[in-house]
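#structure-requests
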Amino acid sequence: MYNLSQQVADVLILHYPRMKELQANTLAVARMDASVVNAGSSVAELLAGSSHLAVCGKEKPKPSQEAPHQPKKQSNKSKIIEHQSCVIDQLLQHIMRQDEHMDNLEAKSEGAPTQDKIKKCQQEPSEQQDNPKRRQTSVAYLHATWFV
């Protein structure tokens, strides 16, 4: 009589006893009773089906609850390990920067040129040769000469 999917019907049948207990006069309970009578069954069969679905529903979650916990623990462990490796990488980078800074300070105290200045001096001649020469004159724009 009513157009329901099988999943919706299963949920309604599963909760039928509780709905009838709480509010027997509701429209949902009345429609369920009418549907059962129109289908040629009795309310007792509906209650039996409901109790069967309730028992089946209680048995399934137990095995499925154990399986999801293991991957969560592994993912938490992997997150912790990943975080620790990131912290170690940051510490190593910090140590390398401190070493460079100490080398620069030692070079300044000894009066010798720093490594950065030496690198810049070595790069400057090669950079000057690679750069093309720029135009010395000003550029005349087309919109400035168009109406002259």
